[in-house]
Amino acid sequence: MPFPLASTPRADGFFMPPEWHPHRQTWMLWPERPDNWRYGAKPAQRAYTAVAEAIARFEPVTMGVSADQYENACARLSEKIRVVEISSNDAWVRDTGPTFVIDGKGNQRANDWEFNAWGGLTGGLYQPWNRDDQVAQKICNMERIERYRTDGFVLEGGAIHVDGEGTLLTTEECLLNANRNPHLSRAEIEQKLRDHLGIDTVLWLPEGVYNDETNGHIDNIACFIEPGHIVLAWTDDESDPQYQRSRTALEYLENQRDAQGRKLKVTKLPMPQPLIQTDDEADGIDQAAKAWPRRAGERMAASYVNFLIVNGGIILPAFGDAMDERAANILADLCPGREIVPVASREILLGGGNIHCITQQQPLA
Amino acid sequence: MPFPLASTPRADGFFMPPEWHPHRQTWMLWPERPDNWRYGAKPAQRAYTAVAEAIARFEPVTMGVSADQYENACARLSEKIRVVEISSNDAWVRDTGPTFVIDGKGNQRANDWEFNAWGGLTGGLYQPWNRDDQVAQKICNMERIERYRTDGFVLEGGAIHVDGEGTLLTTEECLLNANRNPHLSRAEIEQKLRDHLGIDTVLWLPEGVYNDETNGHIDNIACFIEPGHIVLAWTDDESDPQYQRSRTALEYLENQRDAQGRKLKVTKLPMPQPLIQTDDEADGIDQAAKAWPRRAGERMAASYVNFLIVNGGIILPAFGDAMDERAANILADLCPGREIVPVASREILLGGGNIHCITQQQPLA
Predict the structure, then answer these.
(1) Complex prediction ipTM
(2) pTM for the complete prediction?
(3) Of A74, A77, A138, which has the smallest distance from its Cβ to B85's Cβ?
(4) CATH code: domain of residue A45
């Protein structure tokens, strides 16, 4: 296969388009490991299937699955979903898959970030993670897309959002965490982001969502909904440890300008009531020394911001919470051209993420 | 993924094009199992790599490889070769991969034959063979090609050759073997071939090459080089057990007409001197109860007929035998527009086949 390119996307005229740029398809990976997904991952497979089928109403979906689960995945997914063999350590293609870049002239490439399971040996969620770190390469090889490999620079796709006009949104909690790139300064990390995503300005929220095991991925707390306009996960409950995180983020954003010199508009997206893992949910998980323990009574990092924008729609987490409808209505108002499709996602949340975390859009070139 | 189609290719207007029809690409699978390939399959991987690189001079090549061997295959293959994850039980995509069909109007589909490891529990070469039986489906799914699955009809791609004008060539030794489709009569098998390959006439050679563990696959003894013209593996040594097999085949062919009513022209392609597995070759193989034993002193089924026609070329087995050059010269005379590329293939032969067995052409639609 083509070897990784020695230059950078920016040097070659490539940049990461925003999520609302038209997609060629969305990639997913099939959940399987019983030490992260309760009851042999069957409930999670149902949830992933529901997400895949929802996306497939709008655009093609490719599901990567291990050899052991190939037959089962084919049987559970409808004929609209393309199933291919891609082994992984777990099913978070937002973080392990490629981050695609385009040049605006019909060409497409991708970033293949070094991956360390959200923290390596100091806070990472499992080991080994060698198959996860091959996912981006496998997707690029399959699609005959050239890639830039960032050995020595750890990043996950869920740690960044872009507006397509030069501005990137991330969190200090994640990108400056000592378990990612302790050898790089903030300025050096910004330069990596500029070089690999073709952006100019980095907006740094201090923290992500409370108790988010990714060390505060941006894609659970805030995202662009259009250039100059950010949606922010919000709670009015001052006793909630999330309150100060969202409040600080809002104050930060109100005092920033984006790469185009614009002041930022911020829309608050309410969070659901705190969601707690139950005894039964925790009991269905295999006990394993090398995987993150999931315990009954733990608060989960539930957020409606973890939605995926697709061609003509938004696939939105739903929790069976009173706020589900309000979140959908807010997004419907913000995006009149898009159908809002809520998908029950508590089962995905139990595994540590949500709809945006388990999907990776591939743009049209 | 699309479910298997319920009809047949013939009913839908599809037929198998001949091997000289222009190819979109050639598929291969990476050799790995140490109970079939000596010395951890490293010598075989070198041989497969040489075949892949030879083909890649003429057309794209995709190599399917297990998760465990993905990194190694990528490192050993040049950047021209596309590497994708496809698990298998062994590396014979001619027999486990799809047999593609086209409709002459720009559409392409494929047959996904039931596979039983060349004989199932009565003479098959290993068990299990479940991953092999998924290979055709995986290739079709990856390429978004619809397929016809023949549950209840066992066939391998190496057991058939077609001329693209209605005639199919096969052997009784293989297709009428009790370890393939004992529930079907000769007439019923012919009907399956008509329905799935869009042919009209079946030519039945009695036997294949002596000591061929596939039960006499046609692709080791005879093939079409153009409509009405067959190349036949030949020896003049009457003491060789191969002599009577080739002689009988020749006499049969001289008395047949093809689907177009033509008498058949037959060109003899000499065989190399008998090739015997050495002590060292046999000693490098893992001993395993569920795999075919490969023993020193065994004669191997070496034949130049096991070549692959590619776009503008022929990839020809070479054995370091005095006949190598003569075989190449005969094919060069028969195919003045094609470059003849001999590739040393003893290492492939040690595993039980040759260049045609380890490749599967995908035609242009």
Answers:
(1) 0.94
(2) 0.96
(3) A138
(4) 3.75.10.10
